[in-house]
UniProtKB/TrEMBL annotation:
GO terms for biological process: chromatin organization; DNA recombination; DNA repair; positive regulation of transcription by RNA polymerase II; regulation of chromosome organization; regulation of DNA metabolic process. Transmembrane segments: none annotated. PANTHER family: MICROSPHERULE PROTEIN 1. It comes from Patella caerulea (Rayed Mediterranean limpet). PROSITE patterns: FHA_DOMAIN. This is Microspherule protein 1. GO terms for cellular component: centriolar satellite; Ino80 complex; kinetochore; lysosome; MLL1 complex; NSL complex; nucleolus; spindle pole. Residues 1-20, 41-74, 121-158 are annotated as: Disordered. GO terms for molecular function: G-quadruplex RNA binding. InterPro entries: FHA_dom, MCRS1, MCRS_N, SMAD_FHA_dom_sf. Keywords: Acetylation, Centromere, Chromatin regulator, Chromosome, Coiled coil, Cytoplasm, Cytoskeleton, DNA damage, DNA recombination, DNA repair, Kinetochore, Lysosome, Nucleus, Phosphoprotein, Transcription, Transcription regulation, Ubl conjugation. It is found in: Chromosome, Centromere, Kinetochore; Cytoplasm, Cytoskeleton, Microtubule organizing center, Centrosome, Centriolar satellite; Cytoplasm, Cytoskeleton, Spindle pole; Lysosome. SUPFAM superfamilies: SMAD/FHA domain.
Length: 499
């Protein structure tokens, strides 16, 4: 093969190389494969090499290509350009250009033809890819958990404070009362009306406390711990205050109101119905509740007094209710109200004066008419009349109170109604030689005579039609004026003989 040189384009002319051995040719092609382009022509394949390849011997390695770094120049960064170091490292590692490794071309016999070909310009080095700067907030990996933990601790502290506040107002006895009452009635409104807590709670507060005991784990845990620390006697006393449900009152209603049941009867009820009655029920407690039901006409065999219709008024309480209803319809005037208050005060003073004069007037009326009340006989000095029972006073001194196995009294007030707040020796009624009756209080609670309290150790004079109020029981004291008049006339005869 002859070498041809084109003088017009010396940089693009490819001189022909002498034939070499097969091994040397393969080595040269392998070394020059990545940087020597091949051009296909109709007559064969032409190898295009740069001018400097003429000076490079075939048996030497080519000069390695220049490597440029893609790292950014380090400079001082401002606060708004601070980035996460881990992200920068990741960006750098992923931002580098990885040049693919081209496998060596297989050895092929080439037929070189002297053709003048313009070689393309050498490839420009790739421009470095600009590194994207990600603006992130200052590193706060430790600050965020601290902030969230601080919020969590604050919420927990607030919850503990509220729970401790509720626990301080709601005592363990109140929680136990609430739980027992809800289990008995299943109605929070009835619990609000019927249960007496250590302090006043509204219906909303009771509902919130009940839901807290059900669903708030922390408050429920504290409440259970407080209830477990209660003394057994205190816990028993609280359980005895549990409300009565409808089934218990139905069983108590089977006992007729015309009979006076014994405690054994209530014990039989408890033994026959252990699944109905509360575990803290005792025969005495059932008897007390039965007396309450009897007093308020709640037993099935009792007839309730009908309400008055029209102008038919049965007693003073009904008249007072009618007046109160009329007051609601009228518009109030301050001047008129003041005048009415003054007139009401005067009328009450006159009524009090007339009540004090009633015994004297009653004696005059009895002397004129000659009719004695049917409540008295020749041996009855006075009568203490209640709603259900009449107590006859046939001696000059009688005792009032609550009868027990070890204590007997002349007037057993438990026959009239609930008497658990009445002392066993509540008082004494005496008749003096002058014909005057006096009542002396010997119990813990006061006795009210016509609305005036008589404390322990004091005494008060009793008149005819005086209202005697002991606990929740009211009586009217009636005097046998004829017998007292006879006694007064006999006193002057007896005194000289005694002296």
């Amino acid at each position: 093969m002859a070498e041809t040189e084109n003088t017009s384009t010396p940089s693009a002319v490819v001189p022909a190389t002498p034939p070499a051995a097969p091994g040397q040719l393969i080595k040269t092609q392998i070394l020059q494969a990545p940087s020597t382009p091949l051009i296909a022509t109709p007559k064969g394949t032409v190898k295009v090499t740069p001018q400097r390849s003429l000076r490079t011997p075939l048996n030497l390695d080519p000069i390695p290509a220049r490597r440029s770094s893609t790292r950014s120049i380090k400079r001082k960064k401002f606060d708004d350009e601070l980035v996460e170091s881990s992200l920068i490292k990741t960006e750098r590692t992923t931002g580098r250009i990885k040049t693919p490794i081209v496998p060596p071309a297989p050895a092929v016999e080439k037929v070189e033809v002297p053709v003048s070909v313009v070689a393309p310009p050498p490839p420009e080095p790739p421009a470095p890819i600009p590194e994207k700067k990600i603006k992130l907030p200052p590193p706060s990996n430790n600050a965020r958990p601290a902030k969230s933990s601080a919020k969590r601790n604050k919420k927990q502290r607030a919850a503990v404070q509220t729970s401790m506040k509720d626990l301080g107002r709601w005592k363990a006895q109140d929680d136990l009362l609430l739980i027992n009452a809800v289990q008995q009635t299943n109605d929070l409104s009835i619990v609000h009306l019927g249960v007496k807590f250590s302090c006043h709670f509204t219906l909303k507060e009771i509902q919130e406390r009940w839901y807290s005991l059900l669903y708030d784990q922390q408050i429920s845990k504290l409440s259970v711990q407080a209830m477990k620390m209660l003394h057994p006697d205190v816990m028993k006393q609280v359980q005895c205050k549990a409300l009565y449900n409808n089934k218990e009152e139905e069983l108590l209603g089977h006992i007729p109101s015309t009979k006076i049941p014994s405690l054994e009867k209530f014990q039989e009820l408890i033994n026959e119905n252990p699944d109905v009655f509360h575990p803290a029920r005792t025969p005495k407690a059932l008897h007390t509740h039965w007396l309450l039901m009897k007093q308020y006409h709640l037993l099935p065999d009792q007839s309730v007094q009908p309400m008055p219709r029209g102008d038919h008024i049965l007693n003073f309480s009904d008249a007072e209710d009618v007046m109160n209803d009329e007051d609601l319809l009228d518009q109030k005037d301050d001047v008129v109200e003041r005048e009415l208050a003054i007139a009401d005060r005067r009328s009450k003073r006159e009524i009090r004066y007339l009540e004090q004069e009633m015994p004297k007037l009653q004696v005059l009326v009895d002397n004129v008419t000659g009719i004695s009340p049917p409540d008295f006989d020749n041996q009855t000095l006075a009568v203490l009349r209640g709603r259900l029972v009449r107590y006859l006073m046939r001696s000059k001194e009688i005792t009032l109170g609550r009868a027990t196995k070890d204590n007997n009294v002349d007037v057993d007030l438990s026959l009239e109604g609930p008497a658990w707040k009445i002392s066993r020796q509540q008082g004494v009624i005496k008749l003096r030689n002058s014909g005057d009756f006096f009542i002396a209080n010997e119990g813990k609670r006061p006795i009210y005579i016509d609305g005036k309290p008589v404390a322990k150790g004091n005494k008060q004079k009793l008149f005819h039609n005086s209202v005697v109020e002991i606990s929740s029981l009211r009586f009217i004291f009636l005097i046998n004026e004829e017998l007292i008049k006879v006694m007064r006339t006999d006193v002057p005869k007896i005194i000289p003989t005694v002296s």
